[in-house]
Amino acid sequence: MRPLLCMLAVVFSCQVFSQERQTATFGEPSSIELNMKSYPKDPEAAGVVLFETGRNSVQLVNDRIRLIKEVFVKMKVLDAKNFDHATVTIPYYVGGKFDEKVQDIKAITHNGTMKTYLKPSNIFTEDPTQNWALKKFTFPNVQDGSVLEYSYTIESPYFSHLGGWDFQSTIPKMYTEFESEIPGNYVYRRSLLGSEPLYINKISVKKNCFWLPGIAQNADCEWGQYAMKDVPAFKTEKYMLSEKNYMARIKYELKEYTDVRGNKTEITREWKDVDKEFRTDRDLGRQLGYKNFFENNLPPNILAIKDPMEKGKAIYYFIQDHFNYNGKQRILTDIRVKEAFEEKVGNSSEINLSLINALEAAGLDAFIVLISTRDRALPTKGYPVLTDFNYALALLKIGDTNYLLDATSKFTPFAVLPYPALNKIGRVLDNKNGSYWIDILPKKKNVTYINAQLSFTENNEVTGKVSETYVGYPAMEERKQIVKLGKEDHKKEKEKLTFDTTINDFNIENLNNVAENLKETYTLEITPETTGDKLYLSPFFLRTFYDENPFKLNERNYPVEFGFPYSETFLMSLDLNNQYTITEIPQNTIVKLPNGAGECSVVYGATGGKLSIRFSLKVNEYYFTPEKYQSLKEFFDAVVTKQNKEVVVLEKI
């Protein structure tokens, strides 16, 4: 996060990078834009933003002070089949004392001289989350070569929702600009994120820009203008945190404002101020006051456990089993712990605050932990921004050891968080000692282990037994799939992994006992496909962990975040049973990441009429900086080659 070069509000004038501003008129694309066939700076782009502006200002609307946001975007479609920006969504805040209003939505599709206008009847409203709604529309008649334009205005009574501007997107932008004109009694903190440079960065004081009826003195405004040119598309890839952490954007946070009577209100405060409010907050702090209720509702045999760790585990699994998660994430509103417990259904905070209440009722130390999930930007550390958080965990403290808990999922063992919660840091709310940051760390042991003992029959079939063991996060994902599909369909999915395979005697151990490793065992019959007297056998015909390299970018400017370390092991013994001899076998190999971050080895054996294969992949680190991307990419290139391109050749005796 980078501070802008000019930050102070309405006390001075400065100008940086005095570059020429670009302009455009809605509804009048140029002939160059209409005839454009490709974008040389990104030949593979399905489209490009030709021009876009956002302008935020404060205006008087029907005698009320309102924040006005005006947006204008012009895009070029280069490949209509792969262009995914033809549907536009406009989020706006609802559910408070006043709702934001989205007004004057206009959209035009230009195909040469033909213009197709968006009909008002094709603008829809959706309500995907609490307090936020969407206006949504899709451009009509989109073709290769189309120029798409849209504009809209948002009228807001919430000055904390100034938000900012995204300079970068998943398609390139030729010119993108944000302008703000804010009276000096509103003071914002601003920061520039991402690695792209500003083309225009200007701030100055605009005199007498705002006035109110009956107020003698007009207000001066801080006028700011920021722009970027030739912004490359942000290329997403597997194993990353939210793109909001890395995309070029400017972020505003309301720090304070002064009303017409001169009264100053601090909006961005210190954590000690927030801690004090949480103690009495009806939806969060006060929901921790049900110690007696949970003491009466916990089973007596759990309360009688002497060992703190065993008692903590028992309470965790009791709450996990008691509740059904309704899929709703709540943190600052709509939390009713007692009612949720009685109904056995709750949102994320109701379940985890019930867990905290239950732990405290049993005499254990437990606290709320506020986090932002992996699909959202990391929370601001310098000062409290409560809207950065969207989820609450429980922290159990036994002696000097902390255990982070989340009882919403039926698949998470004690002290193992769901994958979406692995977002680096959380804020512990400790009413006695004050809140503090805590690192969110994953479970260290995460294993996939497959052992196959197979042999050829006289009928050229391969039969045998397979056992699979899953530990940690792989076990959580495997359990989810089994529960989602059911045992029989899960077995059928395994049969599809190998050509002409039948699985029998399929057994699952510890499906519902998440504290133990998940195990699957079965027998199988495979009819291999031969070519004359030879059989070309892929060594990993039972399981290929990687069909392709997950890392494909030439350059990645943001970290790789696996979330957790892991290992994958595949063992196979194939008894040739005097049916075949081995005529060709790949070489044993080992590849390593620098500094012990990971390694992959493949070892083949051909003794006693048996073919043996041992594949081992270990990724010991789960965070890799952009500087390590190329070595990681080359490492997985080698892994994919070993698993998909090597062949064992057998010849019929």
Automatic annotation (TrEMBL):
Record-linked InterPro entries: Papain-like_cys_pep_sf
Name of protein: Uncharacterized protein DUF3857
Species annotation: Marinirhabdus gelatinilytica
